Amino acid sequence: MSQRAAVRRKQAIFRWVTVSVVLAFFMLPLIGMLDFTTKVRRGGRTMATWKTLMNVSEISTKYPALKEGFIASIGLSVITVVIMLALLVPTMTWVRLRLPGMSRLVEFICLLPLTVPAIVLVVGLAPVYSWVFYLFGESTLWLGLAYVVLVLPYAYRALDAGLRAIDVKTLSEAARSLGASWFRVMWRIVLPNLRTAVLSASFLSVALVLGEFTIANLFSRRNLQVAMYQLGKSDAKISVAVGLLSLVFAFVVLFAMSFVGAQRSGSRRRRRPLAAAVAPAPAGTGSVKEPS
Amino acid sequence: MSVASPNAERGVAVELTELRRSYGPVNALDSMTLHLAPGEFVALLGPSGCGKTTALRCLAGLEDPDAGTITIGGRDVTALPTNKRDLGMVFQAYSLFPHMTARQNVEFGLEMRGQDKSTRARRAGDMLDLVGLSSQADRYAHQMSGGQQQRVALARALAISPQVLLLDEPLSALDAKVRTQLRDEIRRIQLEIGTTTLFVTHDQEEALAVADRVGVMRAGRLEQLAPPQELYARPATAFVAEFVGLTNRLAGRASGGRAEVLGVSLPLLAGSGDGNVEVLVRPEGIEATPDPNGNATVLSAAFLGAHGRVTARTDGGEQVEVQVASAALPSFEPGQRVRVTPRGDAALAVAR
């Protein structure tokens, strides 16, 4: 009896040690950033940087590049998510229903971007984009097309987990037999049952787009990360503070995601929590990449 | 053609004509023709892979036949998509939409037909009433048992007053007791509303119990289509005889339309050539009496409730199953000598 209690105590200690180490690993850089943004040269603390950051009108007049990058990144997130969903959800559903033999190929294509470094992607995309920019104008938002490719693997995994959890074939056949058109089948039956998967695919995509630096920088477009990088040369404190904010935002999004999943799995049987649904996606890639 | 439904005028005729469908080298449907009379309840029976589900899915529009025509109520629907065919369908797998309550599920088809909210609600209420689940209207699929889910699926299929009701092994996932209950209920409701119904199953008891006519399928063709009693008593082929009910295969000598089996001359239903044949005989077509000078030895005797079954080995080395009255069962002990004799009309068919 006492032996068992001892084992349990040991396990508890081990658990706490592990959690603490992992937390420290993630938190130390963040604390360092916070420390840097509040430090005054001769010792002491100041909240000046954060006050500036919280003052929307001041930050947008003082740092127009940051504002521009922020708006571009938000726009890119929306565009990427919309295109990704419009592309993947019907395709994956259709493959499941009518072309099950193609599912391996589709999976391979969707996971391929994982193996292609961003720089290689840019080399391949450069001629395409030179035409796009030439024909349709030099908007940063065109990057959304490249970002869709970038988020494919993560979005695919998340949606695939969702589709596995429901019997798409029977449900859509039932809906068809009741008189539903294919559009209604997608909108009324498939999508509502994929809600958590769609949410997680979208969250992951947003996190990835908000953290993207390489492609935007190589195409000389200004998104949030590029703006932060450029700002870092002139006003490091603001740059780091924004970096900290976007990191925390990404963490909060990923954290919220696991809660959304857990809540829904409680109300529905057979549904895996979202955290499990996105397990294959490495969190590090989804979070913000630090410039500098 | 027998049409049992008193509401037959509400049903429509359904005709599958010369349907062909192959998957690579496999012929799932091989020139299959099946005509359903208005309001008729036809069951398709057969081993897995015989094409019965393919036939139903072709009728539903979920599979496209390679050749052949399908008409519903005289209208050619062969090229029509599923959602335009006006069918109700119940699937083998639980198919309730998981994000909707039972009531919303039943309302779905009506909504697709653009009916207004109050009509939908009234109709859904009636349908849930019909399947005895009014009290479960606000439950989700995962809060219901398998049997309840299939009832709601039935209500959902019927809510749209379909021209044809398709049942694709709707009972196979249920346990034995619920299965019998729901089976009888499906028949009751079908008789009540008179919808022409095609029911696919691999369970012969189910098919015989509910259908007006049963079609036995084999390798993509209809082997026989007949009312249950006829199918059982006068199977057209050995395959049908063996698939429906228990049969003994007994060696015999055929000549002139009769065969000599275990010393008794039996008339054969279907003609066969003369010579050595195997004759199919049901356990209830054979009598067994304890007899020290008999022609067989009892191997085992089993009590099955209403009747008993004696398994014996003849002196010729054949194993014979004989059905006996439960009361007579104690007089059969393993090792005991018995005389087994086929009744005069016992022969069903000749195995080829």
From TrEMBL, chain B:
GO terms for cellular component: ATP-binding cassette (ABC) transporter complex. InterPro entries: AAA+_ATPase (IPR003593), ABC_SmlMolc_Importer (IPR050093), ABC_transporter-like_ATP-bd (IPR003439), ABC_transporter-like_CS (IPR017871), Mo/tungstate-bd_C_term_dom (IPR008995), P-loop_NTPase (IPR027417), Transp-assoc_OB_typ2 (IPR013611). Residues 14-244 form the ABC transporter domain. Its EC number is 7.6.2.9. It is an enzyme of class 7 (translocase). Keywords: ATP-binding, Hydrolase, Nucleotide-binding, Transport. The keyword Cell wall biogenesis/degradation does not apply. The keyword Nucleotide-binding applies. One of its GO terms (molecular function) is ATP binding. This is ABC-type quaternary amine transporter. It comes from Nostocoides jenkinsii Ben 74. The gene is cysA.
